[in-house]
User: What shape does this take?
Amino acid sequence: MDKVLVVDDDQEIGFMLKLILEHRGFSVTVLERAENLEEIILRDNFDLIVLDMLIAGTKGTDVCTVLKSHPKIKSIPILMITAFPDSEKICLEAGADEFLSKPFEMKDLISKINSSKNASRKGIA
Assistant: This one.
């Protein structure tokens, strides 16, 4: 079972993502803040991170850049999500492997997750 970490300060979105992804067979942890994120990721060995671009107290793009510079975390695919549809370039430049604009269809979310997982397994991510 793939372990997914969702980092989004919107409780409703976090809850919705958890329900949908668990229904699809994923093990999901939701965090509303990015505090101690590196420690949590290293401890729990996540296979994928879903990261909101705007998190209370910090920018998701900054968090993504830090995670992608960490030698033990950089290979974990990061899917950035945001309500700002014109932010794809910013998110990808921060190191995100995939981007999805809110609101999104669940089939698109699953497709992006599968694409990230497949790229990671091939050593592309």
Summary: Residues 3-120 form a domain with the Rossmann fold fold (CATH 3.40.50.2300).
